[in-house]
Write a structure and sequence with these properties.
alpha/beta; single chain; globular; 8-stranded mixed beta sheet; Rossmann fold; 8 strands
């Protein structure tokens, strides 16, 4: 699914025992894109196109996602955050605009709270730091049934093994306001990668460690670097979830993305690209 002109810009790097695939292309101010749970770097292709030239864009497949490896570890928020810290070090990136979506937003906010020396500013899109057993259960009745069953001992792996691509697509459609925003070729790619060795185990582990994503919010109040917090107007988060982050992220610029669900970079890439360009321009002007 990756366009031919980008294939040559795909690389691999060993990050603490996990071989991670990533895209690195363009030149200019560096932007690092961190995807949602159960997606991968191809998820950001609409956003990459909307950003156009003038930036260095780096987009990794997180561990256990896409075509990265899936080590036999506990897939906690801390594990993902540490992996991204190592990835930034190995990539030798400086003055990064870190753009995260869903769990990627939680990772980005955690790095900001740690005052990571390579990160200059964070744009957090629909952070996934709320909801009993994870906010995805709110996306549709089908997702609620499936993700509830996955939490049960012994049953979870069976649920994953017996799923179909059609069911998977219906679950993913719960992340967009308009189902037409979900490209069939992206669903095909996600489905294929989800069947790679260890990936179903990694996804199950991520879901079962849902409390670690909520716990990350406790660190947000220490963030001092420039920060933008944006939610789709049809995101899974509830007003109380958004208000909790507004209180924790006192200095954040807060925005709403129109006609947009949880997968904002996929559904409204032009709006997200505008936010990124604006944030980098503000930093340059300062």
């Amino acid at each position: 699914m990756l366009p031919q002109h980008l294939v040559k810009h795909v690389r691999r790097v060993d990050v603490a025992g996990c071989e991670m695939r990533y895209l690195r292309t363009g030149s200019g101010p560096p932007i690092v894109l961190l995807h949602t749970l159960r997606t991968q770097l191809e998820y950001f292709l609409p956003l990459v196109g909307a950003l156009g030239r003038g930036f260095e864009i780096v987009a990794p497949d997180l561990p256990g996602h896409g075509r990265s490896a899936a080590p036999a570890v506990a897939y906690t928020a801390t594990y993902f955050t540490d992996a991204v810290v190592h990835f930034l070090e190995l990539s030798d990136l400086e003055n990064v605009t870190l753009v995260g979506e869903s769990i990627g937003a939680v990772i980005a906010l955690t790095l900001a709270a740690q005052t990571n020396r390579r990160v200059a500013r964070v744009i957090a899109l629909n952070p996934y730091d709320y909801g009993r057993w994870g906010g995805i259960r709110r996306s549709s009745p089908l997702a609620n049934i499936l993700f509830t069953a996955m939490m049960w001992p012994l049953v979870g792996p069976i649920v994953l093994r017996t799923g179909t691509k059609g069911i998977f697509r219906r679950v993913m459609e719960g992340g967009v306001h308009d189902p037409r925003s979900l490209p069939p070729d992206l669903v095909d790619e996600l489905w294929e990668c989800g069947a790679l060795p260890g990936h179903s185990r990694a996804f199950l582990s991520l879901c079962r460690h849902w409390k670690t994503w909520i716990a990350a919010r406790a660190t947000y109040s220490t963030i001092e670097m420039p920060l933008t917090l944006a939610y789709g107007d049809h995101d899974w988060s509830r007003p109380e979830d958004r208000e909790a982050n507004t209180k924790a992220l006192r200095t954040a610029r807060r925005l709403s993305l129109e006609k947009c669900g949880h997968f904002s970079s996929l559904e409204q890439p032009e709006q997200v690209a505008h936010i990124i360009r604006e944030e980098i321009s503000r930093a340059t002007a300062a």
